[in-house]
């Protein structure tokens, strides 16, 4: 069992406070000083004021964690206790969205036109050696919504990425300022459209980038036990097969796996999203 486990759930007001899982630690963001940063603001504030224990796990979950994963705080903590010394433990929702795109950046472009260009420009600032077209995300290294717990060995890399993004997003003289603060809309699970800025969607994908490029020991809560989004219900076997092809390509570099993946992915996407026969 880890020496300590701090898994927080962020709240914004009395309603979200009342909805929190009793087995998770509440993290107060009711002042909501910077709503443009969403959950990143209370996370940043916590890291600025609290020293981290090197052997402890820290996680920061949104109020929507249960609705997106159907996992309780008790299940999260029990899984972390079985992490066998992993650096990162993930509870990533939307396994179908992870499977149906080559990486999380392609997925981001599908959701927000122009996202990929902004992400590339930012990552050049973060690490000029990274080529996004070489980053393969699959169920072992994908995490959406920041639903993970990690030791400081991972958080230090995450914080470097966030600090770099924060600097560019806050500095009006930065060539990335306008792009990172560009208004966009995202659609919640209930179909409601909400305003946001491009920077939060870039940052959301940094954990997956770090996992794909780094050598962190990772334990993943079985992603295909988590709910599929509506278009993919009843298509679990096809989603799992896509993920397996990406893992095989990432492990071997054999382009045949990628060719078969693209062919199968395009058929599934046409059937799931556009109602065309698979």
Strand order of the largest sheet: 2-1-3-5-4-8
Give the overall average pLDDT: 95
Percentage of residues assigned to helices: 40-55%
Please give the domain count: 2
Beta content comes to 5-15%
Secondary structure tally, helices: 13
Distance between the termini: 46 Å
The radius of gyration is 18 Å
Q: How can the largest sheet be summarized?
A: 6 strands, mixed
Class inferred from helices and paired strands: alpha/beta
What are the segments in which pLDDT stays under 50 over at least 5 consecutive residues? none
Number of strands: 8
Short description:
This protein is an alpha/beta fold. It has helices at residues 14-18, 40-49, 65-69, 73-81, 95-99, 104-111, 115-126, 152-170, 177-180, 198-204, 206-213, 236-252, 255-274; strands at residues 5-11, 25-28, 57-61, 88-90, 148-150, 183-187, 193-197, 218-220.
Can you put this structure into words, describing what you see?
The structure is a single chain. The chain folds into two domains: 5-227, no CATH class; 229-278. 46% of the residues lie in helices and 13% in strands. The chain contains 13 helices and eight strands. The strands form two sheets. A six-stranded mixed beta sheet has the order 2-1-3-5-4-8. The protein has a two-stranded antiparallel sheet with strand order 6-7. Strand 1 (5-11), helix 1 and strand 2 (25-28) form a beta-alpha-beta unit. Helix 12 runs antiparallel to helix 13. The termini are far apart.
């Amino acid at each position: 069992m880890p020496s300590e486990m701090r898994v927080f759930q962020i709240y914004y007001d009395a309603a979200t406070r009342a909805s929190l899982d009793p087995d998770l630690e509440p993290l107060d963001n009711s002042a909501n000083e910077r709503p443009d940063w969403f959950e990143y603001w209370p996370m940043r504030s916590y890291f600025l004021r609290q020293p981290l224990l090197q052997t402890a796990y820290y996680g920061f979950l949104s109020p929507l964690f249960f609705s997106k994963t159907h996992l309780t705080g008790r299940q999260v903590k029990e899984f972390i206790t079985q992490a066998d010394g992993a650096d990162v433990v993930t509870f990533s929702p939307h396994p179908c969205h992870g499977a149906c795109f080559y990486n999380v950046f392609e997925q981001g472009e599908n959701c927000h036109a122009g996202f990929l260009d902004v992400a590339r420009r930012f990552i050049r600032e973060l690490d000029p050696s990274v080529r996004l077209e070489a980053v393969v995300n699959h169920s072992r290294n994908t995490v959406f919504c920041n639903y993970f717990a990690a030791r400081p060995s991972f958080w230090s890399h995450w914080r470097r990425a966030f600090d770099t993004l924060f600097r560019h997003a806050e500095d009006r003289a930065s060539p990335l300022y306008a792009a990172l603060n560009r208004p966009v809309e995202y659609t919640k699970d209930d179909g409601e459209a909400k305003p946001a800025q491009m920077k939060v969607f870039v940052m959301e994908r940094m954990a997956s980038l770090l996992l794909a490029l780094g050598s962190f020991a990772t334990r993943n809560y079985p992603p295909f036990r988590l709910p599929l989004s509506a278009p993919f219900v009843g298509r679990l076997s096809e989603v799992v097969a896509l993920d397996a092809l990406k893992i095989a390509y990432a492990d071997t570099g054999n382009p045949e796996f990628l060719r078969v993946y693209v062919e199968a992915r395009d058929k599934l996407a046409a059937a799931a999203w556009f109602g065309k026969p698979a």
